[in-house]
Amino acid sequence: QKEVEQNSGPLSVPEGAIASLNCTYSDRGSQSFFWYRQYSGKSPELIMSIYSNGDKEDGRFTAQLNKASQYVSLLIRDSQPSDSATYLCAVNVGGSYIPTFGRGTSLIVHP
Amino acid sequence: DVKVTQSSRYLVKRTGEKVFLECVQDMDHENMFWYRQDPGLGLRLIYFSYDVKMKEKGDIPEGYSVSREKKERFSLILESASTNQTSMYLCASSLFLNEKLFFGSGTQLSVL
Question: A35-54 as b/e, with b when 16 or more CB fall inside 10 Å?
Fold first, then answer.
């Protein structure tokens, strides 16, 4: 079983809709969770980090963490074409302080 | 803002050549990382360094070595380049472990 799993997509949503991106992880002891956005041909940049169960909101982005079910999700409200990118989930697994990345989910927001 | 600079955006090398990829960060970060990114495989950690002259192997260190002689500079070395090392190489840094990574713009290496 992969340590950090994401559906590769693409996930296609219309402009203005809510995009929901999901990530599951195998290590129940993981404590730190990150969402990075990567535009085509560019390097990843951090969108959000979350460390506690529940929701964390930042503008149009909400990260949701459920440690009991071992998943973390990213919601993007009022999706815009400029949100079209690959979203990478990163989780510190196995007691490591170094994040393990999922393979990423491609999001396409169409006008 | 943190700036992580990779010396080359594109690089073409021959099989068997020794290749140096250079990375410099300007924010006095303790930690520096080298990842490679391949389609369908995501980001995989090659090596990281948590202090000058200190290094740790990541998930895929075979065929690579690293050097960190100064805090701001972290070099990735391919001792004898092979075609399966054709990839996008990303350098990153962070102030503390378990925190946000700042990435460089990447080096697309082609080994022919």
Answer: bbbbeeeebbebbbbbeeee
Burial class (CB in 10 A: 0-12, 13-18, 19+), A79: buried
**Nearest residue, CB atoms, B42 vs list A31, A46, A102:** A102
| Minimal Cβ distance to A101: which of B43, B99, B100 | B43
Interface test with B, best of A42, A49, A98 (most B CBs within 10 A): A98
**Residues in chain B closer than 8 A to A101 (CB atoms):** 35, 42-44
Quick check: A104 and B42 CB within 8 A? yes
Token pair in block for residue A40: 């085509």
Contacts of A8 in chain B (CB under 8 A): 40
Say how far apart CA A5 and CA B83 lie, in whole Å. Answer: 28
Return per-residue pLDDT of chain A as tens, 111 residues. 568 999 988 999 999 999 999 999 998 888 899 999 999 999 999 999 999 999 999 999 999 999 999 999 999 999 999 999 999 999 988 777 888 999 999 999 999
Determine the Cα–Cα distance for residues B76 and B93; give it in Å rounded to an integer. 14
Secondary structure class of B68 (helix, strand, coil): strand
